[in-house]
Write a structure and sequence with these properties.
Chain B: Pfam families: BPD_transp_1. The complex is a heterodimer of chains A (258) and B (294). By secondary structure, chain A is α/β, with parallel strands linked by helices. Chain A has ten helices and ten strands. In chain A, the strands form two sheets. In chain A, strands 6-7-8-3-9-10 form a six-stranded mixed β-sheet, with helices on both faces. Chain A has a four-stranded antiparallel β-sheet with strand order 2-1-4-5, covered by helices on one side. Chain A starts with a strand and ends in a 5-residue tail after the last helix. The model of chain A has no long low-confidence stretch (mean pLDDT 89). Chain B has 294 residues and is mainly α. The mean pLDDT of chain B is 90. Classes of the chains: A alpha/beta (258), B mainly alpha (294). The A-B interface holds A 51, 53, 56, 58, 81-86, 88-89, 91, 93, 95-101, 108-109, 112-113, 143-145, 148, 158, 161-162, 165 and B 106-107, 174, 176-187, 190-191, 194-195, 198-199, 201, 289-291, 293-294.
């Protein structure tokens, strides 16, 4: 189910502004890869290029290669909609659909793609909510609006919604930055559980979080404001946090800048 | 000049200014409400006299200016049919235009041109839309005066209002919701239909109702397109029809008290119809929303 992602020489632009430059990396299946780096260094932009969400923004474009196993995601014959169906995403701010109930939110991905029966759907919704550690809290009120949940519950609802379509990769863009420590812990536990089945990539500003949840860590930086962001180094998380190869990485994780 | 530092009590001049501005705001509010309340009051007071069964079940056929009785049944039917037809034409076109402008146009050349002409249409005087339909539909194409011709004129007036209101509401839908849907592998058109439009629905309904309210009270375009009749004509596609604003207009220009009373009741009926439509639309949106299940 989980698949490997390979990126080679990737540049991303907003209009004429180059946001990231020359990024190459391999993201291993069934593991958690964390992206860290100062604000504006392009880690969120890079994350969004991995499931072709970057190009949703008017004027945005990408150069370079992203491969999922043996498929080129930016190949001319590839349907971006199917890419996003295969590579799911969880956003910084919880964004359940406000017009839908809890049940409908989880079912949204399948139902909007129109391909399941009601009984199948019931099973998938239950599995997904269980997978997101939310089932026990909401099983008695599935018909209530998703927007009525607390922030942490909403974020787990969004994770349930993302895994309901059975993606192979799950991208998370600072999924805990709007949450309190207890909800954060719940999500981190969830990430450790999900990595048995999915390839997970997480952007975070919280270095303890990167150290806690990830297997490999990539450090991004930019030379100066207005310059494109670059990948400085990527390695085992334990190595990055104890014995990084680059001086900039060490300065960043020890809090000397950023 | 010395600069005051530290924590100070509110100075007397600031307090006075605050009072003054507050008083001005209340005054402005009262000034704005007076005409509204007085119109409502007058219409209810003067319209109550003929607010009876005969008014809602009879037409003006064979009833002269001096005769008591008579009703607006033909005009009510006409207004309902014309407004319904106008909405059937204007709402889908307006909605789709707004969807194009917000979701697909992205500030391109075509969307700027459309946007410009929507603004131009907003400024078209209502009589001009009537003249256009008269000149094009009736004189050039040789169609007869009919409720449908009136509906065409009204739809020209409705369209820009629907476009603008829908556009505003669609722009208020957060980007994140669209992205959440894209990230689930939902195609753009389904995202618009299933996520964006439902989220904006209450606002769109309000906008459509405002447009309905605006055209329901139009007299000039009807005068040129539906002609005028005292008889009941249920078929909006054939022969002259009546409309409530026309009915009010026709009765007020008659010199008798009974006619003027009919005009007041006609005005009251028009207000009630618009109010009722508004209520129904709100009930429907409320019934469709998840808030009901809370």
């Amino acid at each position: 189910m989980a698949k490997q992602i390979e990126v080679a020489g990737l540049d991303a632009y907003y209009g004429s502004h180059k946001a990231i430059e020359g990024i190459s990396m391999t993201i291993e299946p069934r593991s958690v890869t964390a992206f860290i780096g100062p604000s504006g260094c392009g880690k969120s932009t890079f994350l969004r290029t991995l499931n072709r969400m970057h190009e949703v923004i008017p004027g945005a474009r990408v150069e370079g290669k992203v491969r999922l196993e043996d498929q080129d995601l930016y190949g001319p014959e590839i349907d971006p909609v199917s890419v996003r169906r295969t590579i799911g995403m969880v956003f910084q701010r919880p964004n359940p659909f406000p017009t839908m109930s809890i049940y409908d939110n989880v079912a949204a991905g399948l139902r909007l793609n129109g391909r399941v029966s009601r009984s199948q759907l019931d099973g998938i919704v239950e599995d997904s909510l269980k997978g997101a550690n939310l089932w026990n809290e909401v099983k008695d009120r599935l018909a209530r609006p998703g927007a009525g949940l607390s922030g942490g519950q909403q974020q787990r609802l969004c994770i349930a919604r993302a895994i309901a379509v059975r993606p192979q990769v799950l991208l998370m863009d600072e999924p805990c930055s709007a949450l309190d420590p207890i909800s954060t812990l719940a999500i981190e536990d969830l990430i450790s559980k999900l990595k048995q089945d999915y390839t997970i990539v997480i952007v975070t500003h919280n270095m303890q979080q990167a150290a806690r949840v990830s297997d490999r860590t990539a450090f991004f930086n930019l030379a100066a404001q207005g310059q494109p962001g670059k990948l400085v180094e990527m390695d085992e998380t334990s190595k990055i946090f104890t014995n990084p190869a680059e001086k900039a990485t060490e300065d960043y994780i020890t809090g000397r800048f950023g | 000049m010395t600069v005051q530092t530290g924590i100070q009590p509110i100075s007397a001049t600031r307090r006075a200014k605050d009072r003054l501005v507050q008083a001005l705001v209340y005054l402005a509010f009262a000034l704005a409400v007076i005409p509204l309340v007085s119109v409502l009051w007058l219409v209810v007071k003067n319209g109550a006299g003929r607010f009876d069964m005969e008014f809602f079940t009879h037409s003006m056929r064979n009833i002269g200016a001096r005769d008591a009785g008579g009703g607006a049944y033909h005009a009510i039917i006409g207004t309902l049919e014309q407004v319904l037809l106008a909405s059937l034409i204007a709402v889908p076109i307006g909605l789709l235009t707004a969807v194009y402008l917000v979701e697909y146009g992205e500030g391109g050349r075509l969307s700027r041109i459309i946007s410009f002409f929507v603004d131009v249409m907003t400024g078209v005087p209502s009589v001009v839309s009537g003249l256009f339909v008269l000149a094009f539909w009736i004189l050039v194409l040789g169609m007869s005066f009919s409720g449908f011709a009136g509906a065409l004129a009204l739809s020209i007036l409705m369209m820009p209002v629907v476009v603008r209101a829908t556009e505003e509401m669609l722009r208020l839908v957060p980007r994140e919701l669209r992205e959440a849907s894209y990230a689930l592998g939902v195609p753009k058109w389904r995202t618009i239909v299933k996520v964006v439009l439902p989220t904006a629905l209450p606002g769109i309904v309000t906008g459509v109702m405002l447009a309905v309210a605006r055209v329901a009270g139009e007299t000039a375009p009807l005068l040129l397109t539906v002609f005028v009749t005292d008889s009941i004509n249920n078929d909006p596609f054939n022969g002259p029809q009546m409309g409530l604003p026309l009915y009010v207009f026709n009765q007020t220009i008659l010199p008798t008290d009974v006619a003027v009373d009919r005009a007041w009741t006609g005005a009251l009926t028009l207000i009630l119809i618009v109010m009722l439509l508004n209520l129904v639309a709100r009930l429907i949106t409320w019934w469709r929303s998840p808030a009901r299940r809370r």
